[in-house]
Amino acid sequence: MAWTTLNMQVTTPLFNGGHQPPMSMAEAARQEAGGQLPAHATEPETGIRISSLRGAMRYWLRAIAGAEVGEQIGLLAAVESRVFGSTMRASPVALRLPNPPEARLGRPAWSGGDKGRWIGYLAGQGLSKPAGGNRGILVTRRFIDPGGPPFRLQLRFGADTDAAALALAALWCLCRYGGLGARTRRGFGGLRITAVEGELPAPWTPEMLCSATVVPSAGLQLDEHGRPPELATCAESLERLVALARQDLTTPPAAFDGWHGLPTYPVFGGPEVFIAGLSSRTFADWSAVLAYAGEQFRSFRATESAPGAKYTPKIKTREWLHTVNGTDHEFALGALGLPVVFKDGKTVYPVGAAGGGGSPLRRASPLWLRPVRDSDDKWRLLSFAFLGRFLPPEVDVVLSQPMRPLVVGSADVKRLSTDWITTLSSSDGSFIRSETP
Predict the structure, then answer these.
(1) Whole-number Å distance between alpha carbons of 83 and 89
(2) Averaged pLDDT for residues 246-269
(3) What is the pLDDT of residues 292-342, one digit of tens each?
(4) pTM of the complete model beyond 0.85
(5) Taking Cα atoms as reference points, which of 6, 417, 419, 407 lies closest to residue 198?
(6) How far apart are CA 139 and CA 128, in angstroms?
């Protein structure tokens, strides 16, 4: 079968780390002063790889299939194998990148000033460093800048049209809800499809694929399963593929009759487990969206006035004041992702054994922030959250210094995510407060 070509473009800075080390602080200072950097700091590297693209598409396929297979993890793996392959089965969908874009170090325009400061807040310390004063940030990792030349992603579909349809559904989700590389949950690594050349499996059309990063101005139009119309058209393909996947198992599980508790992995499953909303505010471009989101997110996380702070805004998190440096055991802030690293070597993290023993673990944030365009060609902030089980029951959350258990759970995820989405969806909603002396 002939290859189908998708012309694609990066929409927000994409950090897809490779073998090159990050820029050191000394090198960052040298770059800022206009000095020459060593060769290893100037060499580009491949910014997008098929392996990372497939990995991200697998994530979104599981979110799509979860509403049909539930807690039957063996069946979920069989569905994934039928679409993307496994050690025992070749994938019926081949992918290749004839001209992958290159990632380079640099000082992009969006990194400067107050805007750059708040974009850097979302990027985190692993990707950027403060430039000092009001000069924004220094980007310390190689990245693909948005708006550059398009690149081509080619797909070749086999005889299984249902598997092909679901592979495209996963790619559509990647473009609408996710991205590639680091900090995708905070708006980075966005992709969009700009044109299609070649045949597509039903029900997909070029217009549907290109719609992934354009949301209706009137709202997201999700159905009772939390799916937009484009994904809902793949429901029959999913049902048929799940039926075939059951036959792949030695002992097929009983028919799925719905989740009996919170999902144990991200899944589109209706308003109880997936919530989403658009900001009422509109913006001129993606950088304005992320700067707005960064400033709002700082005030969302840090709710306590701190007049003595040596930075602005003069606010601190409740958890730093009353839990890390107090006697409280509540750590709701952890619902936005763990570990959380504070100064003085104090860290809050999950561990895999009761009582604080075991190895430190990670828990990615259930709350995602994405810049998208609406049908009026305005940029909006799309926020959504998977309200599944936050941590398995055998995992504890602990503070490192002094070592003691803390409390954070699924209820905190729902409360914080709902508060964020509903507040920014309202016409006058904001988390930024006037500072009190």
Answers:
(1) 10
(2) 90
(3) 999 999 999 999 999 988 888 999 999 999 999 999 999 999 999 999 999
(4) yes
(5) 6
(6) 4
What lies within 8 Å, CB to CB, of 158 at 6+ separation is 1, 92, 93, 164
Task: Tell me the two tokens of residue 126.
Answer: 């692993």
Residues with Cβ within 8 Å of 312's Cβ and at least 6 positions away in sequence, in order, are 435
Domain boundaries, the chain: 4-105+140-248, 274-425
**Burial (CB count <10 Å: 0-12, 13-18, 19+), residue 240:** middle
- Nearest to 337, CA basis, from 312, 311, 308, 368: 368
110-135 tens-digit pLDDT = 999 999 999 999 999 899 999 988 89
Is the preceding peptide bond at 350 cis, omega within 30 degrees of 0? no
What whole-number distance in Å separates Cα of residue 119 and Cα of residue 115? 6
Q: At what angle do helices 73-84 and 235-248 cross, to 10 degrees?
A: 110
pLDDT bracket for residue 436 (50, 70, 90):
very low
* Helix, strand, coil distribution of the chain in percent, nearest 5: 35, 20, 45
**Phi, psi (deg, nearest 5) at residue 374:** -100, 180
**Could you read off the pLDDT of 173-204 as tens digits, one per residue?**
999 999 999 999 999 999 999 999 999 999 99
Closest CA to 332 of 369, 300, 305, 370: 300
Confidence of residue 29 (pLDDT cuts 50, 70, 90): low
Tokens 């098929």 belong to residue: 50
Decide if pLDDT at 437 tops 60. no
**Contact (CB, 8 A) for 378 and 288:** no
Measured distance CA(131)–CA(145) in Å, rounded: 19
Phi/psi of residue 109, each to 5°? -60, -35
- Chain centroid, CA 433 distance in Å: 27
Q: Which residues contact 178 (CB under 8 A, 6 or more apart)?
A: 56, 59, 60, 184, 189, 368, 370
Other C-beta atoms lying within 10 Å of the C-beta of residue 115: 20
- How many residues are listed for the chain in this entry? 437
